[in-house]
Amino acid sequence: MGGNEEWATDAAVLVVIVSKTTFDHNGEPAPVHSFDTGAAWQNLALEGARRGLAVHGMAGFDYERAAEVLDVPEEYEVEAMAAIGERAPPESLPEELRDREEPSDRKPLEEIVHRGGFE
Ligand SMILES: Cc1cc2nc3c(=O)[nH]c(=O)nc-3n(C[C@H](O)[C@H](O)[C@H](O)COP(=O)(O)O)c2cc1C
User: Fold this and answer.
1) Is 20 in the pocket of ligand 1 (CB under 6 A)?
2) Is the CB of 60 under 6 A from ligand 1?
3) φ, ψ for residue 98 (rounded to 5)?
4) CATH node for 4-89
5) How much is the average pLDDT of 37-61?
6) 94: pLDDT confidence band, cut at 50, 70 and 90?
7) CA of 65 to the centre of ligand 1 (A)
8) Confidence of residue 11 (pLDDT cuts 50, 70, 90)
9) Gyration radius (Cα) of the chain, Å
10) Per-domain residue ranges of the chain
């Protein structure tokens, strides 16, 4: 979705990242299932980058269809998708995507870290 098909189709692997919403030991809801899975995804992305691969997270896909095709059980939640593979030359991308092949800026800390509550 959202133009992802244009560049993601040729990725070596498309990974659907799924979290388990309940604890294994007692079946109770696991409030940090998304947080935990996000941390695991970050490790995957860092290790991929260390190996020189492109690891690109995506939210632009059909979540319901992914769950259906992969028979994801009810107590699991589809969180995101990632395309992993060797980086293609920028010339292989449509022109509007080529500009995005530069490292992006990061927000200054004062914009994202607050002392006390939100204003
Ligand atoms: C959970 C998640 C979902 C994302 N969804 C998309 C997406 O659907 N399509 C897309 O082109 N980029 C998406 N992005 C952004 C890219 O993966 C990547 O973060 C972005 O190109 C900027 O990379 P950089 O901040 O490391 O430079 C998503 C990122 C994350 C973490």
Assistant:
1) no
2) yes
3) -60, -35
4) 3.40.109.10
5) 97
6) confident
7) 20
8) very high
9) 17
10) 4-89
